[in-house]
Amino acid sequence: MNQTAQELLKKLEQKTARIGVVGLGYVGMPLALEFAKAGFHVIGYDVDSRRIAEVNAGRSYIGDIKDAELAEQVNAGRLRASLPDDSIGTCDTISICVPTPLRKSKDPDMRYIVSATDEIAKRARKGQLIVLESTTYPGTTTEVVMPRIEAKGLKAGEDFFIAFSPERVDPGNPTFHTRNTPKVVGGYSDACRILSKALYSHAVDRVVIVSSPAAAEMVKLLENTFRSVNIGLVNEMAIMCRKLDCDVWEVIEAASTKPFGYMTFWPGPGLGGHCIPIDPHYLSWKLKTLNYNARFIEMAGEINSHMPDYVVELVGDALNDAGKSVKNARILILGVAYKKNVDDCRESPAIDVIELLRKRGATVSYTDPFVPHLHHEPVTMDGVAYDAATVAAADCVVVVTDHSAFDPEILTRHAKIVVDTRNMMKGRKAAGRVVRL
Ligand SMILES: NC(=O)c1ccc[n+]([C@@H]2O[C@H](COP(=O)([O-])OP(=O)(O)OC[C@H]3O[C@@H](n4cnc5c(N)ncnc54)[C@H](O)[C@@H]3O)[C@@H](O)[C@H]2O)c1
User: Fold this and answer.
1) Which of 2, 65, 310, 332 has the smallest count of CB within 10 Å of its CB?
2) pTM greater than 0.90
3) Which residue segments constitute the domains of the chain, with CATH numbers given?
4) Is the CB of 99 within 6 Å of ligand 1?
């Protein structure tokens, strides 16, 4: 390691390094907090001034972070938030945690990574470690981020250090959080790897080193593609089981007793969240540029994105059996967040289900204790209470998200029809009709 790397390593070991985190969302905020808890001086950067004000006031807008733990670090002067400004130049390490959505065409939307990198490049100096954490296609770190910093006359691996380290945060998970989830790091050079390990060892219990940024980028895409493909498989199993008059939940539960060579996945109303519906497309896009068609990804994407239509078909059939139509039916959606016990509605299949039902003329309402107001293009509406009267007033209740707060007994007693995509009504003798996925 050269002198520049050795100096940074010393600062990391002595915790005198100043840490920067760009993007204070579900990923960046817990990371910034963990570095502050470890005793570092941390600056979190965001372009959203409301978020900056909240952080600096010690108020958390991330479900898994309590106000008190955030306020403790802010009040101790270890953590503050700011718009991207010249203080970026004072940071010794910078972790980039900005969004990586897809364009409508399902191509990667790199504008957040590019703008964050440009802000950093403007203030780049010798001796900084820059780590990209946003999920992206293999090659991004060295093809998009690195050249923009090198354009400032600095050489990667010598003057500045660069790595990719995928985030594995699982919002709402009571067991695994930033510190106890192993973190993979792929550095551009030996010095980049050593420095990245020295940095992240302060925030996570186990750092796993891989040989390059591209390998680390690929690790994340394998993890999320694995989930997407397996969820696609069980979703198709659900469709096949219905045709065969089998109970897919029973089948999966029994298969899950196999102690080796099997991993349990459950079907559902479609993929949601910022990762699983999106990340595999980053990989397939990259492979298309190399004239290769990523077939598993495409197939799983097709099956998973069809699930909201399938759910609406089940609703239509159930209403039809009761002599009713979707048109003018009052339909209550139970849960609009993309998974249980979180408030995140990004890519939630509930949005598609609501839209599809509305297009067919239904009057749709929703209830979700985590989401009092739903503002997700093209749906904007307020939630209603989850109680006996609301459930009884609906012609059909569609369970999209099985938050723990939902008491199934209310459905058991008062629902006319339940279309249950989460097996919430398992083993219940309901007064009305229950259609399970
Ligand atoms: N949410 C998850 O569960 C999760 C898990 C693993 C990986 N990831 C990945 O991590 C990345 C971040 O995801 P997230 O869920 O934290 O997103 P988020 O939308 O919650 O947060 C991103 C933040 O970045 C800010 N931002 C956007 N452009 C910026 C810029 N140029 N400079 C500074 N701040 C900027 C936004 O205002 C926002 O506050 C994505 O690539 C995502 O795929 C997310």
Assistant:
1) 2
2) yes
3) 3-211 (3.40.50.720), 279-436 (3.40.50.720)
4) yes
